[in-house]
Amino acid sequence: MIVPGSANALLLASAAVAGGYQIERSLRFNSADSAYLSRTFGSGGNRKTWTWAGWVKRSALTANNYFFGCETATTQSGSLYFSFDAGSFNVLSFGFFWRTTTAVFRDPSAWMHLVVAVNTTEATANNRIRIYFNGVEQTAFSTLNNPTQNADLGINQSAAHVIGDYKLAGNLFFNGYLAD
Question: DSSP letters along 1-60, please?
Answer without folding.
Answer: -PPTTTT-HHHHTHHHHHTTPPPTTEEEE-GGGT--EEEE-SS---SSEEEEEEEEEESS
